[in-house]
């Protein structure tokens, strides 16, 4: 049994992750953190019944993690919060599963450094969906044969998503660029400049779209589209909980979803 904590426990994603933890035989919820509902039972807040796990404030994170013997912390919050809280957890000897998007390169490196220096295990992934990570694998393979075509990435999310482009779109662009030996990215298009050989990335925000990602390979007289659609956030929550079970048994170090899925 692996003891797991959740940040943003009162939020929509936090509640869904908790629901998945409760249904996962190898995991036990031992701590929950948020800025709201401090002191209340997290199960009652999430309308799941009394769980015996109070919501704690992030200022008490290190002591609560140690007292509750939490082994893995799942963090799907916002970049500025994760940048502060993840190193706290690592310093308490807790491994990390981070799904927060919008982290700056400096924030991500600081978190990675804290994982390494505190000798814990950790994963920082833009998307925990199993389908998306297979999507990345397909893109890497397709790019070997379609690299001479024009490549555009179009992503669409709900109106409340703050970061653009999405972490998954950037992840797809990185996979393609690495497969082709390095390509520059351009975000959106305007003006009169001719198209170069860069990868175009475009963001759409509206309604309640959970997450659509399409990669377009366009050539003379033909095109290929590779697409992933998330129909609910369960795809992300389920993958994150599986990652927590894997990370809880892993040796110290940095991992990817490709490692966890054996891709």
Parts with pLDDT < 50 across at least 5 consecutive residues:
none
The CATH homology group name of the largest domain: NAD(P)-binding Rossmann-like Domain
Overall strand count: 12
Helix content: 25-40%
Termini Cα gap:
26 Å
Q: What name does the CATH topology of the largest domain carry?
A: Rossmann fold
CATH architecture of the largest domain: 3-Layer(aba) Sandwich
Order of helices and strands: EHEHEHEHEHEHEHEEEEHEH
**Tell me, what's the shape?**
elongated
- Percent strand equals 25-35%
Name the CATH class of the largest domain. Answer: Alpha Beta
Q: What is the strand arrangement across the widest sheet? A: 3-2-1-4-5-6-12
Tally the structural domains: 2
Radius of gyration using CA atoms only: 19 Å
Instruction: Supply the number of helical segments.
Output: 9
Average pLDDT metric: 95
Largest sheet: 7 strands, parallel
What structural class is derived from the secondary structure elements? Answer: alpha/beta
């Amino acid at each position: 049994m692996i003891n797991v904590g959740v940040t943003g426990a009162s939020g929509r994603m936090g509640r869904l992750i908790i629901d998945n933890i409760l249904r996962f035989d190898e995991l036990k919820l031992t701590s929950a953190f948020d800025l709201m509902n401090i002191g209340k039972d997290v199960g009652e807040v999430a309308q799941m019944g009394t769980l015996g796990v109070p919501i704690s404030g992030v200022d008490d994170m290190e002591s609560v993690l140690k007292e509750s013997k939490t082994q893995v912390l799942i963090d799907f919050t916002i970049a500025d919060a994760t940048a502060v809280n993840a190193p706290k957890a690592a310093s308490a000897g807790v491994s990390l599963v981070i799904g927060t998007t919008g982290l700056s390169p400096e924030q991500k490196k600081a978190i990675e450094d804290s994982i390494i220096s505190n000798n814990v295990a950790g994963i920082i992934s833009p998307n925990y969906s199993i389908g998306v990570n297979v999507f990345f694998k397909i893109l890497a393979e397709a790019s070997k044969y379609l690299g001479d075509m024009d490549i555009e990435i179009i992503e669409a999310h709900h109106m409340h998503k703050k970061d653009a482009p999405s972490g998954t779109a950037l992840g797809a662009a990185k996979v393609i660029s690495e497969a082709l030996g390095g390509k520059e990215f351009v975000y959106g298009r305007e003006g009169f400049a001719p198209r170069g050989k860069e990868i175009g990335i475009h963001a759409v925000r509206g309604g309640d779209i959970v997450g659509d990602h399409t990669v377009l390979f366009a050539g003379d007289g033909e095109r290929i589209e590779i697409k992933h659609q998330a129909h609910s956030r369960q795809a992300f929550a389920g993958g994150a909980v599986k990652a927590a079970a894997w990370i809880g048994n892993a040796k110290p170090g940095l991992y990817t979803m490709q490692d966890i899925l054996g891709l």
